[in-house]
């Protein structure tokens, strides 16, 4: 046969995703994983994604990646107006959350996308805790020394009163919403403002060409913000969550340690907490000053009014460490979401005078002191500065959207109640609210709980475990309602915490202690974080719902009343070992080499005979038996009397946390009944969810419109597939999908055959069922199969139930992922009139136009079945990470190549 030309290869693999991991430049950390269609220009193909889209503007803060929210329930005209009002040019630091939160919500419920799966090995949660901030308030000598040095140096910070900080934040907020003035005099004005009020001027000339340039100011700000042992490093997940606690928490609310393996604790001293709050606001101010200048120089470059030298860019990328870049994310969140409101006190008001920085100032103009300290309350009067959210109604609507989509009990009746409560929270958002508004200020509240020091693997879990003590209208709610949240996993915690803190009935029935990475039972339903393996498994069932990191299900653990529970799991040995520098994501060349469409072939000597169409549900000997799978129940393994039930004492939001019932940790198991329909024989299967595995949605693909797959005795496809075999209808399977190079070996097993086996390993399965032995056209080597494909759609009587949900008739570019979920059934010409050969050089099209099909789809299907729960539970017991490949969304060949990119060995093929 003649070798395939480059043009023919491109036609053959049109619509096939290709997998990459490429570095973004110096000082940017691990490579960035991506999926692309380099040989396709149609937007309908290039915009295919393996993850869902953010559906509410209130949730846009979850990621630092540029994105467009879908705004399913929002006011699109308002969103358009808000977008038009923004400036044209923004500076985006090349530093973003890991894993990519856009990719954390896979199209399959309870799964993630390709990018997030690779980035788990270098997740932000794996970083060591920030040394020097082991205790807020109980400052280490290094921190005290560095801050004193910075304040006394002639080349560092000027001392600023807290009122000056707030006034400058007000000015930056006004400057941010206005278009940048483009006259050259602006640089000198900003220069004078910065070096006369905030920083000491440079001791030497940094730019002889323009000593007052924006670049000089940027360099000075970066130098201060990059100083070690001085500022909060928001590259750590814990600090992103604790941001709101420092701004709005009470001293009594910050006593406990975070239950995530960190040693960070907070101080009991109100004065020390206020001092840390002062330094946080100063960090916010410096970050805003830096961001405003970066935006100005970016806009000037875009409009041709500024010229940035490459040396300046290189110096910035080198000097602006990860902590500085995360401070820029904080500045963006602040300027987008927060406004500082200044009010003058009346005769009746008497702000209590304590110092933010107690050792340097005695005047207190922004906060109130705890009760019992009123000795000098009448001596000083000054303005009040309130920190308020700009988009309170948007955040409240987002919370209602979250409750509705998660199918929260009586969500419709609770919507107005939650909205009223959240608006009340918004009215009281200040740096430190009056203690008179809180009757429970004595109780501890913060991320805390008993630590589990048991280590099940050589490395810590890649998923952070977080518990929290909830308060009505507490700082968790204030963080969400204000919109001041940093990218990362924190949004899912804030959403659920805010929902609970503003639902009095739920708080009374569940108690005040929450396990935000576990699950709870409430009102006949169970709710699970996607950080919990139970949630990721139950997500595959009928009636489940997923929204922003949470799963709801009608399946509840046996014997568990309303309350929280934690699930005991352990990392798989492979996942626990391959983290940080050992993570798969650093192997850029193996990732691309082991997922190439041409396998290990020389691109200039590719033959048609090197490819096959990977057939599925074809069994040479006999068709697998028809079976019916039924889930019998979810159990927590432990003595019956040790399972926590609702206490006889009603748990109210005002109850001391010491009286709250303890959240117990148990292993979980799921029971199934499998019935063979012919013999009516019933077997019971129980799978323990012991391994913290992950599921990935196989990336969608689009069948090539440029080729035909032919049938003839000379076709290599025929030589690998016995067309007299059986499929689920007893007929010859249709030929649909992309070809697969012979480099990739795989074996397909029916789920019933897998269930019948005992005491086996994945390596043994791959070695025993080598696919090379089933391909007579290839040399009969004993190579083990690279991938195990589990057939979960042949011969099952309990077919998935489809719930149809209307979609908007208008499909935008960013909505194309949803319409790609459906593809289509094979056309008659593909199953009955297939001809000879493998490649039609004339480019004849046997597939319906992808574009036409996408725009004709008006409904979205959501699948779920006990079969899919069982196979996920099976993998969780075995410790197998798995891709979930759904027929007619993506072909098996593309899923096998993606498994090669991830380094995974199991594909779950569902209908």
Provide a quick synopsis of the model.
By secondary structure, the chain is of the alpha+beta class.
Description:
- Residues 433-460, 807-837 are annotated as: Disordered.
- This is Helicase-like protein.
- The chain has 911 residues and is α+β, with helices and mostly antiparallel strands.
- The chain has 3 domains: 130-336, no CATH class; 393-572 and 632-669, no CATH class; 608-626 and 693-910, no CATH class.
- The strands form 8 sheets. It has a 6-stranded mixed beta sheet with strand order 9-10-8-7-11-14.
- A hairpin with a 5-residue loop joins strand 15 and strand 16.
- The two termini are 36 Å apart.
Shape: globular
How many separate helices? Answer: 28
Largest beta sheet: strand ordering: 9-10-8-7-11-14
Structural class: alpha+beta
* Number of domain modules: 3
Tell me the number of strands: 24
What is the alpha-carbon Rg in Å? 30 Å
Distance between the termini: 36 Å
Report the biggest beta sheet as strand number plus sense, adding barrel if it closes: 6 strands, mixed
Beta-strand percent range:
5-15%
The overall pLDDT, averaged over residues, is 75
Kindly state the percentage of residues in helix: 25-40%
Stretches where pLDDT is under 50 for at least 5 consecutive residues are 129-138, 255-268, 350-380, 432-460, 639-659, 718-734, 771-781, 798-860
Region (Disordered): 433-460, 807-837
Organism: Bombardia bombarda
Biased composition (Polar residues): 809-831
Protein name: Helicase-like protein
């Amino acid at each position: 046969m003649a070798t395939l030309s480059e043009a023919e290869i491109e036609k053959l693999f049109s619509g096939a995703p290709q997998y990459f991991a490429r570095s973004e430049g110096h000082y940017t950390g691990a490579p960035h994983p991506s999926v692309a269609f380099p040989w396709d220009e149609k937007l309908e193909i290039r915009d295919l994604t393996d993850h869902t889209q953010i559906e509410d503007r209130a949730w846009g803060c979850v990621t630092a990646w540029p994105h467009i929210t879908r705004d399913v329930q929002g006011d699109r005209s308002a969103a358009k107006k808000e977008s038009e009002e923004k400036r044209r040019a923004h500076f985006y630091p090349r530093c973003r959350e890991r894993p990519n939160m856009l990719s954390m919500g896979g199209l399959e419920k309870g799964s993630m996308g390709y990018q997030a799966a690779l980035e788990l090995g270098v997740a932000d949660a794996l970083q060591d805790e920030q040394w020097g901030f082991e205790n807020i308030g109980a400052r280490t000598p290094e921190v005290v020394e560095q801050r004193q040095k910075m304040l006394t140096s002639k080349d560092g910070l000027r001392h600023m009163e807290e009122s000056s900080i707030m006034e400058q934040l007000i000015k930056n907020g006004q400057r941010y919403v206005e278009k940048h003035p483009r006259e050259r005099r602006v640089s000198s004005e900003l220069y004078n403002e910065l070096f006369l009020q905030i920083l000491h001027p440079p001791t030497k000339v940094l730019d002889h060409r323009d000593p007052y340039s924006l670049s000089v100011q940027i360099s000075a700000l970066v130098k201060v913000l990059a100083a070690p042992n001085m500022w909060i490093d928001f590259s750590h997940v814990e600090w992103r969550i604790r941001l709101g606690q420092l701004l709005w928490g009470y001293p009594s609310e910050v006593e406990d340690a975070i239950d995530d393996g960190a040693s960070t604790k907070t101080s009991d001293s109100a004065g020390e907490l206020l001092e840390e709050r002062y330094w946080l606001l100063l960090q916010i101010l410096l970050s805003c000053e830096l961001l405003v200048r970066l935006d100005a120089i970016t806009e000037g470059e875009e409009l041709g009014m500024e010229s940035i030298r490459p040396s300046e860019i290189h110096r910035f990328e080198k000097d602006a460490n990860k902590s500085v870049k995360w401070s820029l994310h904080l500045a963006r969140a602040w300027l987008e979401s927060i406004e500082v409101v200044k009010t003058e006190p009346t005769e009746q008001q008497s702000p209590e005078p304590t110092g933010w920085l107690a050792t340097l100032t005695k005047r207190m103009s922004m906060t109130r002191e705890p009760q019992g300290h009123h000795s000098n309350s009448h001596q000083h009067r000054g303005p009040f500065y309130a920190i308020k959210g700009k988009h309170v109604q948007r955040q409240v609507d987002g919370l209602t959207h979250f409750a509705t989509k998660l199918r929260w009990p009586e969500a419709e009746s609770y919507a107005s109640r939650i909205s009223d409560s959240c608006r009340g929270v918004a009215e009281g958002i200040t740096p430190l609210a009056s203690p008179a508004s809180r009757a429970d200020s004595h109780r501890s509240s913060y991320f805390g709980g008993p630590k589990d020091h048991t280590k099940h693997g050589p490395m810590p879990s890649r998923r952070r475990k977080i518990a929290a003590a909830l308060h009505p209208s507490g700082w968790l709610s204030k963080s969400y309602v204000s919109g001041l949240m940093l990218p990362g996993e924190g949004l899912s915690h804030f959403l659920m915490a805010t929902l609970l803190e503003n639902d009095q009935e739920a708080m009374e029935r569940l108690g005040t202690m929450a396990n935000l990475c576990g699950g709870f039972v409430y009102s006949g339903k169970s709710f699970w974080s996607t950080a919990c393996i139970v949630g990721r498994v139950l997500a595959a069932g009928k009636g489940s719902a997923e929204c922003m990191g949470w799963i709801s299900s009608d399946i509840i653990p046996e014997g568990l009343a309303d309350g929280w529970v934690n699930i005991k799991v352990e990392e798989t040995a492979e996942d626990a070992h391959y983290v940080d520098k050992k993570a798969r994501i650093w192997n850029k060349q193996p990732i691309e080499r082991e997922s190439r469409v041409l396998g290990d072939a020389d691109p200039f000597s590719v033959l048609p005979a090197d490819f096959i169409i990977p057939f599925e549900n074809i069994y040479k000997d006999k068709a697998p038996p028809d079976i019916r799978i039924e889930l019998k129940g979810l159990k927590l393994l432990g003595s019956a009397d040790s399972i926590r039930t609702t206490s006889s004492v009603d748990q109210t939001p005002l109850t001391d946390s010491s009286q709250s019932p303890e959240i117990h940790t148990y292993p979980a198991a799921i029971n199934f009944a499998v019935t063979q329909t012919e013999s009516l024989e019933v077997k019971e299967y129980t799978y323990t969810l012991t391994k913290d595995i992950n599921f990935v949605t196989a990336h969608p693909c689009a069948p090539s419109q440029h080729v035909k797959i032919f049938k003839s005795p000379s076709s290599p496809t025929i030589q690998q597939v016995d067309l007299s075999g059986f499929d689920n209808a007893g007929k010859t399977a249709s030929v649909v999908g992309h070809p697969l190079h012979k480099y990739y070996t795989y074996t397909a097993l029916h789920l019933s055959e897998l269930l019948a086996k005992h005491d086996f390993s994945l390596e043994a399965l791959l070695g025993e069922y080598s696919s090379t032995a089933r391909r007579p056209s290839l040399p009969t080597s004993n190579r083990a199969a690279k991938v195990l494909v589990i057939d979960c759609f042949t011969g099952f009587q309990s077919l998935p139930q489809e719930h149809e949900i209307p979609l908007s008739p208008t499909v935008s570019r960013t909505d194309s992922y949803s319409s790609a979920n459906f593809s289509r059934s094979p056309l008659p010409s593909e199953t009955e009139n297939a001809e000879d050969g493998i490649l039609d050089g004339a480019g004849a099209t046997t597939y319906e136009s992808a574009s036409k099909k996408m725009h004709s789809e008006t409904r979205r299907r959501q699948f779920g079945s006990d079969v899919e729960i069982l196979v996920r539970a099976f993998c969780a017991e075995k410790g197998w990470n798995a891709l979930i490949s759904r027929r007619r969304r993506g072909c098996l060949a593309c899923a096998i190549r993606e498994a090669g990119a991830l380094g995974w060995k199991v594909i779950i093929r569902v209908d």
